[in-house]
């Protein structure tokens, strides 16, 4: 599937509808007050809307990436699940997620020494810095080093470099496509230090069972420990999204470290309890992932 198949003509009568062949026959619609930005970058169509009830909304190639209303659920879990599963995360790589929200969450961990960040589309960073300061504040952290380029190529040149790698990709259509291939996951594994952990955007157990099975299969084959978490994101299709994780040592389904009260007070979704709960999957998914 190519991004030419995505219906970009999605705003009608003041409502944005997310129409995509990856979730046929269903569309989430949000009421729009104003289009704040709409341009085609080198890689994709970027739209930024002011919605009536969900704050600002970032849309890439017609697909919702985040709303200010519920972005915390995804960013917190993408960052804190792997970081709290690791006993001492110091060197971190983030691929994708140009809005900066995952960087913001990683920045809350004082023991992290260095955060490499690789994003293919510079324009997403610029739009986020202009319109989404509560996420793009992630870039203000002096530990963050930004690399503009293809995540697949970036990771190929890294060996034994990171404790945690987070892949905050868009869907496997358009520029995110390369980040769903086995060869990319092999690169992630080689880029990890001993005992390292990866967490990748794992699609939806309701909308994309084929992708969930594929990603879980790849991580099971390549990593010592594999686990799949399911989280609530009301403005993603199905109202949920998965996080696919692999580890070269540490177990994933419970935190390896205690959370400080200072950090817990900053968070809205992540707790040590929800860390464990996220890996408890419905029976049909357990069966699906065993097959
Ligand atoms: N930092 C937020 C960036 C969002 N990255 C993930 C976006 C996924 C969008 N599609 C969700 C639909 C599930 N297939």
Give a short overview.
Helix content is 30%, strand content 29%. By secondary structure, it is α/β, with parallel strands linked by helices.
The CATH first-level class of the largest domain comes to Alpha Beta
Biggest sheet layout: 7 strands, mixed
SS elements, strand count: 13
Q: What class would the helix/strand composition place it in?
A: alpha/beta
Shape: globular
- What's the number of domains? 2
Q: CATH homologous superfamily name of the largest domain?
A: Vaccinia Virus protein VP39
Give the overall average pLDDT: 95
Low-confidence stretches: 1-7
Helix content: 25-40%
Given the structure, what is the number of helices?
Answer: 10
Strand content: 25-35%
Order of helices and strands: EEEEEEHEHEHHEHEHEHEEHHH
Bound molecules: spermine
CATH architecture of the largest domain: 3-Layer(aba) Sandwich
* CATH fold field value of the largest domain: Rossmann fold
Q: Give, in spatial order, the strands making up the sheet with the most strands.
A: 9-8-7-10-11-13-12
> C-alpha Rg, in Å?
18 Å
- Terminal Cα separation, in Å? 25 Å
